């Protein structure tokens, strides 16, 4: 699990410090381990999850058109839920008819999130859903982790973290409904939904350097005061110690100069509760953008709540939980309207992320971050009340994968494994012929994306 | 010795005087002599001439050494031992050149002039030095510093095991609880019936085991849970805030074994909670469940150990608050003086200290509201964090801070940033400060409250390798750490605490040189039964025997270490060491080999350590006895020598081979003492089995031994029982042990606390029935008062 992984990483870090004999307890915090000029443009992927299906009539473009051009030459209005993405219509791509066809153990929500990015069955287990047989974790890795492994294996694309898993209000509960990312079979990765914790993970070393630098002068003064009070014969060891501390100060100053890049400022004291969801969302988005800008990672995910998520979006005038609303029949107009508001709110967050990426220039001056980043917004269901995993709402924004944007594509009910393959191939993992359940991969990656 | 020699000189001058004046002359000589010494008119010791003639060319003037013998002529042997040695072996090129009388003279001269500890103490008076925290002290001090804000450690008295609460249904709802009981360990097969078909539905029950685990060692421990059902294990964690060490609440696929590794501090209780649920999780739907078999076992692998069920003796049914166990690795401490001391600083050490400070700040930061007793949204929170920072600084630095120190370590770091960032800076400053990292020598504050705090600090450092707890701090603050009785009461309490027991045990384990020993391995062809499991069990057996001697009775009799004829064995070991026990039996006290056991001296773990892969090693055993047990100084052999191969001398016993190999005069200096001691354990083979008549090579065992004590005549004995008796009655062993204990606890030179202290402690140790616990308390009562003021003052003016 992610925590174990982190704990171990911390220990490894500390371990390296101790045995390595470095004076400083910090690793270099340079923007990237990569050689900037070594390869072509960077490619980045940010997967965003929101739960419980969409409102089909307010999400999909008018029926019957296989390809609807949304570029500025044919300015048909975007469907209501996608309206916040209007400023990015040229960089938008929606995919209809891409279906999660994985069967086996677990209820629709469990298979919805657990097979969404893995394309493979859940293990049998002890988690009983609302229907079907009990299940456990996914039996394979998720596509982002496959891409991560590919990037980390090459020095020109390897980054400090490889991937970062963000969350917003993910319940403190590890089960099939709360995990989307898998490092491998039975290896779910917990998203970090506390922005302060994520901040510490990203900038802890820099923060420690600052804090330490700020106190070392006083520590040295204190050393002098203590040394003056002890017998002369005892001063030697204190003087040696003072010299070492001085050395540490010099090293810290040098490191600070070398590792300078902008650190986002978070508003302090935001509690993790339902009503703070908008603030937490924006804080996490700032951290995503900062992490991409600093090239800490090229693969990220942002998971809003969980499958069966129950966000209560009171700030939109919606008091009911999202999942409860999603079970209402399509004839319940009030529920449909509220669910439309909810999904439009998510679209607004996607638009905000796209805007922040578009505003942020690439460090090497080659355009904006959005030019080389694809945001992939998805969902565990096509529709909440029917629990269908057909017509998963796939929304892509940005230029990271080289797909032709400004389009709404419709496919004839293809397995989503083929789309997952397309993501990997776009990152150059072209040798990958199957991902997840091989029965759904026979036709290879989706055609017509690029 | 100088005094005795002075008497002899006085006697001689008296003998030369007219009879009637004898008495007066005697007095006069006694009175005049010091003046004569001061004036340089002292008659030369007869041994001095012998030394110049025969010894100086190798040993140098005043024994300082030469290019040929590049080391000082110093040691712990008595005049008698030295005399015998010189007579038999010196000078190395012509041992006959110095006869018995000249040997006696030169031994006496050398001993009194520069060889003996006393002589050395005269030339360079030992003093209590400033030291930094050792690694052990650093780890324990940080654990107690932070832990002191979280709650007290549970006591060790009472039943061992974990408290199990058994519930109907699938969760730990109190209303559903059927019963509670103490389970000695977690190893159950509930079948398909469940714990009790009368009270539980077979398909659905949940059990929560809670308490603490007390690991014998410090290090990484791997925990393993085996079960077919949902399980979570927390070790040294806050269940409400952290992910469990093992989280298999989601059962997924065929796995039935789950692992997690965590760092633990030896001897300390660490909270442990194991939650088990025989039911599906997720949506609560009993109709979808079938009765299936339910088993569960909690196992661990100790550092260097093998996988075993976590044993009852390491479990208590009371939960300890989480302890900060630093994962930061530290460079090892200096052990060159025999015991660990923090006398050096290095860049590696500073890097570790800094990383440890950051790790501590991380830990405190993650749990700050609970530690500082506040809430995130509370208005008083900034004030609470400030108070916490100050309390943390004062506890870390051993008492109230003066204004300047408070400014530097608390006030200024808190300035200009939010409360959390300020606290973090203050913690880093405190944990980098010399007031925390170093323990000053003898500077005793005049103010009684500060003096009390110094006493508290020394008690905690000596008995716990840590910082004072609340009771100790309060006693100091109330002025109740003044009289020896008050200090003794605290020392007794502290010794019985888990930390005191751990320190005492670690001191003994270091004395036995088992603290850094690898688990022994044996030649599988000769000892096929000696598996890694057996080796691990033997280590456990030795721990149990030590614990039994230290804590099993009203007193901890030192002599039992050498005379106990019992041996803790379990089913697996019983098979190998000739006792009839059921195969799966847990450890129990047995009396193998018809009583031919001599406490630790014949313990199979020690015997295996002090042996080769394929056979015994009288030299390793002898060196251990001469040096560690009887306290004589041995030099390393002049060159590294491989033992003679048995097949080159097929007719010889091990004893004969060793004698042959160590027969040259250069070897005899030390081996004259080593071999006879080691030979007396020849009846115990390379894995410590008693083989009294014939060795595995078919050669008869000769286990006659001998020892020349520092005072009194040489003694001869045969076999381990007589050896044990000799050691138990030996003043050399008792004196050595007093020194070992003093240096292990106080980690400062014994002589710095006064020239007579060793003898006084030794005398009271013997008079009080050789009680190890009492000795530890006696030592701490003396050491807590600090060194005599003169030691600090006399060096204060030195350059």
Task: Give structural notes.
The complex is a heterodimer of chains A (450) and B (799). Chain A has 450 residues and is an alpha/beta fold. Chain A has two domains: 339 residues, Alkaline Phosphatase, subunit A (3-Layer(aba) Sandwich); 68 residues. Chain A is built from ten helices and twelve strands. In chain A, a hairpin with a 2-residue loop joins strand 7 and strand 8. In chain A, helix 4 packs parallel to helix 10 and helix 5 packs across helix 7. The N terminus of chain A is likely disordered. In chain B, helix 4 packs across helix 24. Chain B folds into four domains: 122 residues, Cytochrome Bc1 Complex, Chain D, domain 2, CATH 1.10.760.10; 186 residues, no CATH class; 155 residues, Jelly Rolls (Sandwich), CATH 2.60.120.1560; 198 residues, no CATH class. Chain B is of the alpha+beta class and 799 residues long. Chain B contains 29 helices and 19 strands. The N terminus and C terminus of chain B are likely disordered. In chain B, a hairpin with a 5-residue loop joins strand 12 and strand 13. In chain B, strands 2, 3, 5, 7, 8, 10 and 14 form a seven-stranded antiparallel sheet that branches. In chain B, strands 4, 6, 9, 12 and 13 form a five-stranded antiparallel sheet that branches. A two-stranded antiparallel sheet of chain B has the order 1-15. The chains are: A alpha/beta (450), B alpha+beta (799). The interface between A and B is large, with 70 and 76 residues. Strand 4 of chain A pairs parallel with strand 11 of chain B.
Structure annotation, total helices of chain A: 10
Mean pLDDT over all positions of chain A:
87
Distance between the first and last residues' Cα of chain B = 32 Å
- List the uncertain runs of chain A: 1-38
Structural topology:
The complex is a heterodimer of chains A (about 450) and B (about 800).
Chain A (H helix, E strand, L loop, with lengths): L1 H19 L23 E6 L6 H4 L7 E3 L22 E8 L8 H7 L7 E7 L6 E4 L4 H10 L9 E7 L12 E4 L2 E3 L5 H35 L5 H24 L18 H17 L3 E8 L17 H5 L6 H27 L13 E6 L15 E4 L9 E9 H11 L24
Parallel strand pairs in A: 1-9, 1-10, 3-12, 6-9
Antiparallel strand pairs in A: 2-12, 3-11, 4-5, 7-8, 10-11
Helix pairs in contact in A: 4-10, 5-6, 5-7, 7-9
Chain B lengths: L1 H14 L6 H18 L6 H14 L19 H11 L10 H16 L1 H7 L7 E2 L2 H13 L14 E7 L8 E7 L3 E3 L15 E9 L5 E9 L2 E6 L10 E3 L8 E8 L5 E9 L2 E2 L12 E7 L5 E3 L5 E2 L30 H20 L1 H4 L9 H17 L5 H12 L4 H14 L1 H4 E2 L8 H17 L5 H8 L6 H13 L1 H14 L20 H20 L8 H4 L3 E3 L1 H6 L11 E3 L13 H6 L8 H12 L24 H8 L3 H15 L24 E4 L7 E4 H10 L2 H16 L10 H11 L4 H13 L4 H8 L3
